[in-house]
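User: Hello! I'm new to structural biology and keep hearing that structure can be predicted from sequence alone. Could you demonstrate with UDP-N-acetylglucosamine 1-carboxyvinyltransferase? Please show me the input and the output so I can see what each looks like.

Assistant: Of course. The first part below is the input, the amino acid sequence of UDP-N-acetylglucosamine 1-carboxyvinyltransferase. The second part is the output, the predicted structure written as tokens.
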Amino acid sequence: MEQYIIKGGNPLVGEVEIGGAKNAALAILAAAIMTDEPVLIENLPDVNDINVMLDAIAGIGADVYRIDRHTVRINGKGIHDFDIEYDYIKKIRASYYLLGALLGKYNKAEVALPGGCNIGSRPIDQHLKGFRALGADVDIEHGKIIAEADCLKGSHIYFDVVTVGATINVMMAAAMADGLTIMENVAKEPHVVDVANFLNSMGANIRGAGTDVIKIRGVQRLHRTEYSVIPDQIEAGTFMFAAAATRGDVTVMNVIPKHLEATIAKLNEIGCEVEEFDDAVRVVSKGRLRSTHVKTLPYPGFPTDMQPQIGVTLSLCQGTSIVTESIFENRFKYLDELARMGGVAKIEGNSATIEGVSKLSGARVSAPDLRAGAALCIAGLAAEGITIVDDIVYIQRGYERFEEKLKSLGAVIERVASEKEIQKFKFKVS
Ligand SMILES: CC(=O)N[C@H]1[C@@H](OP(=O)(O)OP(=O)(O)OC[C@H]2O[C@@H](n3ccc(=O)[nH]c3=O)[C@H](O)[C@@H]2O)O[C@H](CO)[C@@H](O)[C@@H]1O
Ligand SMILES: C=C(OP(=O)(O)O)C(=O)O
């Protein structure tokens, strides 16, 4: 098992290139199999979840040709199997997108119940409600979701909760249904818009993505396209909070500043200077930062996927901050790990009260999930002494060359795989 070992205390300084959005790319890869013509996708992040999705679609017969680390050509013509057996696919959340894609194209799909980070109970009832409204029979048997329809028919669907996954999944299936689908109370995240744009570039007729109501007029076939995935707002935000927590000066490059508004607002509130450019944002963090309150909400609210990163930063701000997690009930596990480093927080229900401390001290901690793992690395970078982060396999699900990017900003961090390497690192930096 690999670990990160970090010697904290260096302010992060410099420029860092942000990759394509994992959560947009995963849905786009699934949607790419909905045509029998070749689709070229650029700006893919080279992370584990993407590789699992590529293997899964190749496993059912799609032609997958990796042009380079960030570009792939996919042709769904050869798909011969609508049953996703592939062992790893059930471990990723986005496996559920293959249901919408296969159901839309072939009117049938069998996919293992999805996994993903253990951040809450994560039901998929709204996905199934949407498929059923389109006329599919949906059952769960032996750990698999089995969906089938004679013919999908457009429908009027009101989602009971705002869900990114169900919005995208049902949108994919409806793209090839007969007639008009109207989806209300949908998610407005940038990746919902990106997937709609991608499907439209293949000939779909989807209007309203980015608002509360999406209207989809089904088409009979989709066609070839070339598409570049949007930048990852969560990767960008992670580096922005790393700059804040280490009192650094970091410019995140290749971003869409509009997608980062909630993050920028919170950085301003705690006392960072934030400068916006056309496709870059600079964060300068000087002196002691001050506390603030934050509540996670669907976009354009503050993203739940950035809650651990701001939580760690707030633990180094003067005063008391309250963090309210309104999307997933189990996203505070990083605070228990942070306590080993001197962090002070009290969790009550879906709120954490974080008392700012003047310093954190390095310790051995475990990444409980993807974003919590990244947040603990931020803590290690800001702390005095050496931090070891175990279970970085979670971080590798969603961050490309994380340690290399951090190193380019002056961080002292290594990816190691044994106690011997840990000792070697300690000797080198002592
Ligand atoms: C692979 C991927 O893109 N994952 C993202 C996706 O997860 P995911 O698609 O799982 O998250 P959703 O947006 O669907 O979930 C939002 C809320 O709706 C609830 N819900 C969801 C579906 C459903 O059928 N029933 C239901 O009650 C969930 O429990 C949660 O409280 O969006 C989350 C919210 O932005 C992000 O944290 C995840 O990083
Ligand atoms: C929680 C996340 O991913 P997943 O939904 O795939 O678990 C995430 O990207 O922060």
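User: So the tokens describe the shape?

Assistant: Right, they're a compact way of writing down the 3D structure. Reading them back into a model, for example: The chain has a mean pLDDT of 96.
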